[in-house]
């Protein structure tokens, strides 16, 4: 029998970074806070990005098959918070953030970040309430040095 309290506690102990995932649908741009991200291959370079199927960004990513991941530093909890709520509730999340559009994907990249990767979707697995997008890294740039923002350092929980 599954002990729900134990499951929730232990799954929340899996370490996660906090990132801004940039997506697009035609000319429409959006970004959201992502935490279920990890490297999955060296050759070719690939990452996994798990996205909530109930979000508008999920649909944008499915249509375009491209996304960016901007790496936040440990002082950017406020940036992560700004992108956490749905666009349908808060409007244009990119309005107050300096960003550029990635040359390889056309997706937004946060300029005040540690750096970014641009990815094209190489596969997707629709199981449960999140889709696991496998993204091949097709471009990357470092903006500056710093320590990454970690979910467990914010006092927030996403998981369990």
Structure description:
With 160 residues, the protein is of the alpha+beta class. The chain has one domain (15-154): Electron Transport, Fmn-binding Protein, Chain A (Pnp Oxidase, Chain A, Roll), CATH 2.30.110. Helices cover 19% and strands 40% of the residues. It contains five helices and nine strands. The strands form two sheets. A seven-stranded antiparallel sheet has the order 2-1-5-8-9-4-3. Strands 6-7 form a two-stranded antiparallel ribbon. The two termini are 16 Å apart. The model has no long low-confidence stretch (mean pLDDT 94).
Shape: globular
Number of strands: 9
What's the CATH H-level homologous superfamily? Electron Transport, Fmn-binding Protein, Chain A
- Rg, Å, rounded: 15 Å
Low-confidence stretches: none
| Count of alpha and pi helical runs | 5
The CATH topology, please? Pnp Oxidase, Chain A
Strand order of the largest sheet: 2-1-5-8-9-4-3
What assembly state would you assign to the polypeptide chains in this entry?
single chain
Strand content: 35-45%
């Amino acid at each position: 029998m599954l002990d729900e309290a134990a499951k929730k506690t232990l799954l929340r102990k899996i370490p996660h970074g906090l990132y801004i995932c940039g997506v697009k649908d035609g000319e429409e741009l959006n970004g959201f806070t992502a935490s279920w991200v990890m490297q999955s291959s060296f050759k070719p370079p690939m990452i996994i990005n798990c996205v909530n199927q109930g979000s508008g960004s999920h649909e944008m990513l499915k249509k375009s098959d491209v996304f960016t991941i901007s790496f936040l530093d440990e002082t950017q909890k406020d940036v992560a918070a700004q992108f956490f709520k749905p666009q349908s509730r808060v409007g244009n999340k990119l309005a107050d953030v300096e960003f550029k559009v990635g040359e390889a994907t056309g997706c937004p990249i946060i300029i005040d970040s540690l750096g970014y990767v641009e990815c094209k979707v190489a596969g997707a697995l629709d199981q449960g309430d999140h889709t696991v997008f496998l993204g091949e890294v097709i471009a990357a740039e470092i903006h500056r040095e710093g320590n990454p923002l970690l979910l467990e350092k914010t006092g927030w929980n996403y998981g369990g």
